Amino acid sequence: MLPFLPGVVYGVDAALLARGDAPWLFSDPNALHRFVAYTEALGWTTLVTAVTKMVVGRQRPYATLDHPELAGPAREVNLSFFSSHSASMFAAASFVALDASRRLDDGLLATATPARRWLLGTLVPYTVAFGAASVVAVSRIIDQQHWPSDVLVGALVGSGIAHLAYLAHFDERGQPRRRLGASAIRVVPTPGGVSVVG
Prior knowledge:
Layout: H1 5-19, H2 31-56, H3 61-64, H4 84-106, H5 114-142, H6 148-169, E1 186-190, E2 193-197
Helix pairs in contact: 1-2, 2-4, 2-6, 4-5, 4-6, 5-6
């Protein structure tokens, strides 16, 4: 449930803006863009995780170590690699930490010293977000649902996909990247055919 909370916050702000109201949590005119980018990050993470689990078919630790009391549904016995809980938590943590870091650096901490900007604008958001994700990841190992390598790979995949999704949508200040709209690109006739310009 935790990976969906940032999506709810971004979604509520986007819905309020669409109605013409003030955003609920952030005064963010780009809340819809953040909601779409966040949904994209979680969607790709979920897809990559599900396909990998089906292809690899690694047995869960409770089955290998003969602890049937820890067993989940029988259909999930061979779906250990890699951890979807870790992947989705680290995707959420990465997206939120990167978003908070960029927005703090460009907003509240814009005039702060470099040390303060790094401490409050980078270290704190990443520590809090990755700390929460790490608790979930470690709990999956303790519960014998995943091997440590399942959790580690899930964390790397989730973090990587979320960073790619965020960086594809937002610049170094946390503002949406400029996109060429459909009107900026057009097809024009040329001698012997057509050309795309824009």
